[in-house]
Specification:
Distance between the termini: 24 Å
Number of helices: 8
Shape: elongated
Number of strands: 6
Length: 306
Amino acid sequence: MSLSNKIEPTSDLKEFWKLVLKRVHVELGNHKAPAMYGEVSAIIPLLYILTFIAIWGDVYLAINILMKAGVKPAFVFIQIGADIVLAILPFLLLKLGLKFLDKVANKNLKLFYELDSKLERKDETQNQYQNRKKENDKALLPPVENNLLWCNLVTWTTNAAIFGVAYWKIHTYASTIPYNIVNTANGKMVITLAILVALFHIIATENTLIHSLFWFHKKKAIARYNQVMNINDEPNIDDTEIKYVGKYTTAKSGYTEIVKEDDDKIVLKYAYIIRDEDINNLLARNTDVKAKMGIIAACKQIQLNQ
């Protein structure tokens, strides 16, 4: 993805028009997490299109086929409502305060704890490092892993329920006609639409809701970032020292930069937010594994606190 001063689609947009889901991840060995900033522009339009098609298919199937076949309107509107509620259920749970179901945040927090446990800091003794590692591994990481299990459980349950609604549509229509459902054009359409609607909801539900939550939580930061990048003056640069041990190479990507200062002090500089594409670019310009891990850990800690 080419760098620009705004968070907007560039080459990713071409992937979108080819209907290819191109996601940004920060990855190092077995450690991987989805982007917190940067992947929305190309994916969101396609996911919303799939969601719209799923809802349209629900309405068309309910009104043009099921109701005309004699299914009671109450049952028809129940199945429409069931699909919509199931599609937004994880998001509703998050809005109700179940923040532990934020899969993107949990995956990034897991990545941070994993890397933080593997890295020594310049200002700590070996004993302090072992104590910090033990706290990460025994006290901080397990709750995050449990949260991810809950995220997956909600996803699997929602997906199963959506397919259950699809089966209910097919069974309801089949019970209204005196012949085999697969022997009629409408019957085949009911089966096809019910399955496609379920698949589109499943494909779009989890990712759309994750990125919808991304928008709700991060849009102010992105708007602030874009506003600053659109003015002629240089943005205000924040900085933090990277205290992890490693052989760092100075590098810059966008407004995110690794700088070596006096006494071998390694400083991470950034403007308001750190984009995940920029993290990957910084990683590409560093060769030391510990330095790569330190860059990811430092950047993720900042992202998670924004």
